[in-house]
């Protein structure tokens, strides 16, 4: 059994714990349709994982003021949560790994650009909320990935040095954020948004197809 004392695992959510990308796509598509703009797969690929204000500015330029941007972002998340409430499944290997890390003594946190209401819904639906000591969402940060703020905030709240943290990510920007924060990163390709080569170039210490391939011992060796 790995000794996880003094070490931490910080989890991104979409594409890592669960795959709700299609629900996000449909919600953004509905918002853009309401505003008279098309939203296609290329738009989604270029913005997925970013903070809502940044996405809205990329999609609409300076059309909306800060208050209107916040309202549009809130509307999008209401649509997303309504769809997600119908049921969400953990990706392969997630539950076993979360449990294994817990048994090994790793502290665990969520580090996501999503709002807390989304994160709490996902954790409740998948029945894994009890494994996470800290949840960091969009309300806790001012800068989005590839800035490391979200992961550094999670590490600080856990009381674990960045050098003793491993981040689970599926996106190039998230891997870059982990590395910029001085953390190791495991990149997961299960949902297939990014190539193995791209994730390695971004700084992933390990790239896996699913989390079924690793254990707490794997993370212990990565941090050694």
Which blocks of ≥5 consecutive residues have pLDDT under 50?
Answer: none
DSSP helix fraction: 40-55%
User: What sequence of helices (H) and strands (E) makes up the elements?
Assistant: EHHHHHEHEHEHEHEH
The average pLDDT score comes to 95
Side by side, the strands of the main sheet go: 3-2-1-4-5-6
Query: What is the percentage of strand-forming residues?
Result: 5-15%
**Structural class determined from secondary elements:** alpha/beta
CATH architecture of the largest domain: 3-Layer(aba) Sandwich
CATH topology-level name of the largest domain: Rossmann fold
> Which homologous superfamily in CATH is the superfamily of the largest domain?
HAD superfamily/HAD-like
- The CATH class label of the largest domain is Alpha Beta
Rounded to the nearest angstrom, the radius of gyration is 17 Å
Total DSSP helices: 10
- What distance separates the N and C termini? 15 Å
What best-fitting shape do the alpha-carbon axes yield?
globular
Count of separate structural domains: 2
Major beta sheet, specifics? Answer: 6 strands, parallel
What's the total number of strands?
A: 6
List the SSEs and their pairings.
Blueprint: E1 8-11, H1 21-34, H2 41-47, H3 52-60, H4 66-84, H5 94-104, E2 107-111, H6 116-126, E3 134-136, H7 149-158, E4 165-169, H8 172-180, E5 184-188, H9 196-202, E6 206-208, H10 216-223
Parallel strand pairs: 1-2, 1-4, 2-3, 4-5, 5-6
């Amino acid at each position: 059994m790995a000794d996880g004392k003094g070490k931490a695992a910080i989890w991104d959510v979409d594409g890592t714990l669960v795959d709700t990308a299609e629900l996000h796509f449909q919600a953004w598509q509905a918002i853009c349709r309401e505003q008279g703009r098309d939203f296609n797969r290329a738009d989604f690929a270029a913005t997925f994982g970013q903070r809502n204000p940044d996405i809205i500015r990329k999609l609409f330029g300076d059309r909306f003021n800060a208050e209107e941007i916040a309202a549009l972002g809130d509307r999008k998340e209401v649509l997303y949560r309504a769809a997600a409430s119908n049921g969400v499944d953990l990706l392969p290997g997630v539950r076993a790994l979360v449990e294994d890390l817990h048994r090994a003594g790793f502290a665990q946190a969520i580090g996501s650009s999503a709002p807390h209401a989304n994160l709490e819904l996902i954790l409740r639906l998948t029945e894994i909320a009890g494994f996470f000591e800290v949840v960091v969402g969009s309300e806790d940060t001012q800068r989005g990935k590839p800035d490391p703020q979200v992961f550094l905030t999670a590490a600080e709240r856990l009381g674990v040095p960045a050098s003793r943290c491993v981040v689970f990510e599926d996106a190039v920007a998230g891997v870059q954020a982990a590395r910029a924060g001085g953390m190791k990163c495991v990149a997961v390709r299960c949902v297939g948004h990014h190539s193995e080569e791209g994730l390695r170039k971004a700084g992933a210490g390990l790239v896996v197809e699913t989390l079924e391939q690793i254990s707490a011992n794997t993370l212990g060796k990565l941090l050694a």
